Amino acid sequence: xxxxxxxxxxxxxxxxxxxxxxxxxxxxxxxxxxxxxxxxxxxxxxxxxxxxxxxxxxxxxxxxxxxxxxxxxxxxxxxxxxxxxxxxxxxxxxxxxxxxxxxxxxxxxxxxxxxxxxxxxxxxxxxxxxxxxxxxxxxxxxxxxxxxxxxxxxxxxxxxxxxxxxxxxxxxxxxxxxxxxx
Length: 182
Fold this sequence. Notes:
Elements lengths: L1 H25 L8 H20 L9 H21 L9 H26 L8 H20 L10 H23 L2
Helix pairs in contact: 1-3, 1-4, 1-6, 2-3, 2-5, 3-4, 3-6, 4-6, 5-6
């Protein structure tokens, strides 16, 4: 599990760095996005990954890694939006947004560690394509919950689904990194 924690942190550092750089370029313009818009952005990323996994020909020279990074960062933005609400104008400095980002990552990583303990790192035997499918399934669940005005009867909420998507995307990034280093 210690190896998983280090690998997790390495993926997050890549994602966090991009988030901070984009905050420097664009500010917190993403704060105007409603949750369904963020969900749709994540959906686009996941669909592209699935297409890359199924199609031999690529017309855009970007691989799965950049799309998984997008899933992670958009999901963290969604968790921030759930907490803070949507605004009409950019309202967060890079420093404030980074604090919120780190907070959401810490909570999500703890969830991963708890589940990883109980499941015995079963994700290590999964295929990246299966992780992609699970992300897409979570997205369809989130869309349904959004269509139900955020209400569930017995199911976990939107936040838990975003957290699972983050963790599945990180697991996929670890797999892709491991396969590139072999």
